[in-house]
Amino acid sequence: MGHHAVLLRTQYRCHPAISAIANDLFYEGNLIDGISERDRSPLLDWLPTLCFYNVNGTEQIGRDNSFHNLAEAAFTLKLIQSLIASGIEASAIGVITLYKSQMNQLCNLFSAGHSDYPNIKAVQVSTVDAFQGAEKEVIVLSCVRTRQFGFIDSERRTNVALTRGKRHLLIVGNVACLKKNRLWGNVIQHCEGRANGLQHSSQYEAQLNHLLKCHLEKKAKEQEERSSQKEKSGDHFCPPKGMK
């Protein structure tokens, strides 16, 4: 007996601004939101629901014939650190890329920079294929490519990558390259239609640097105060009778 595929028309995961991209590109406008914008309010006042961060990096190919982009990886690290410094739980954040080499670059950067942000280990970093079926409050998507499209042109992979985030979808990529692609030209157009939906990393990094500087200064001050309190409590320690 044959079975007909049934399209699930109502989605309950993504903020409507995020689901609108998939609805436009893959579902011919037939997708219905089962949740409202209020149900998916932002985790931070300064963090856009949907944003494309333009990074002028360069794609490189690794020994495994997979692609990576060091500039995108560095910006992604700084963005994730800023989210954690602002109070978002690391376990609520996911980083997706279409390339295994980029995933490895990101994992190496996160491991190297975890001393100031130990919770960063809880951020899930995966290829899009490994992330299928998963969801996070915040998704950061690293596109990698700057010359050609490759996997980024796959409708199935792109659909999965764009629909994992519940409250925030933050895309890191190269506008000049991706705008030439039919799929990604539409994605960028959706981002441009949102307030602060298209940011240039060279300008945005100044804001992130300031946020991280304040966070580290606050941590250093708190550590200094704890050390001071510990020294004071030691000065007033009186041993019980009989203790030498």
Summarize the structure.
This protein is of the alpha/beta class and 244 residues long. It has eight helices and ten strands.
Describe the structure.
The protein is of the alpha/beta class and 244 residues long. The protein has a single domain (10-35, 46-211), classed as Rossmann fold, CATH 3.40.50. The chain is built from 8 helices and 10 strands. It has helices at 16-26, 70-85, 100-112, 128-131, 155-162, 175-178, 182-192, 201-235, and strands at 10-11, 32-33, 50-54, 60-61, 67-68, 93-97, 124-127, 136-142, 165-173, 198-200. The strands form 3 sheets. It has a 6-stranded parallel sheet with strand order 7-6-8-9-3-10. Strands 1-2 form a two-stranded parallel sheet. Helix 1 (16-26) runs antiparallel to helix 7 and helix 2 crosses helix 8 (201-235). The radius of gyration is 22 Å and the shape is globular. The model has no long low-confidence stretch (mean pLDDT 90). Residues 3-175 form the DNA2/NAM7 helicase-like C-terminal domain. It comes from Ornithorhynchus anatinus.
